[in-house]
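1st attempt posting a full record on here, be nice pls
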Amino acid sequence: ARASDRVGNNATVKINVTVDNENPKIKILSPSTLSYTGNINLQLNANDSYSGVDLTNVKYTAESLSGTLVCTGDKYNATCTAVFDTSKLSDGNHTLNFSIKDAAGNSVWDSVVIKTDNTKPGISITSPAASFNARSNLQVNVSLTNAQNIVSYVRIFIDRVGSMFNMSCNSDFS
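the predicted structure (as C-alpha cells):
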C-alpha cells in the first residue's frame, strides 16, 4: 500500500500474503476397524504444506463424546494422539470422526467404524453342583452368555490337580 500527502511525502508498506485454498491432509493410523474394549489409542497424521495445521484444533468425536488430540511435530507435518475410553459407549458399532483445520480455515475430516464390547461374558457352572465329590471321570457343564455373542475360550481349573483345560468355543458352545 502507498500513501501520499499534499506536500509530496510518501509512505509505502508491503506485506506478504499466502493464498491457501487447499485442505489439509489427514491419515488415521489407529484405531482400525476392529472390536475394542476399554481404553484405545487414537493416532493420526496431519499435514498441510501451505499455512500449516492448527495443532490446537485436531478433534475427535464419537456419539456425544468429543476431545482434542495432542500433536507432536510441526504445523506442516504432525502426529496427533489421544486415549479414548470405549466403556463410555454402548456395546456395538460406533463411528469415530476426526477433524483438522489449517491456519487459513480450510478443514477436512475422516472417520473409522469400530465395534465396542465392554460387557464381560457371563459364565456359570450348571453341573456338577458345588461340593460334589467325584470318583472318576467328571462331566462339567457350563452356561455362557455375552451381549455380543462372542466368547473366545473357556478355561476350567482343577485346583487339587493343578490342571487347566482350554476349550475353543463360539456362541454355539456346548
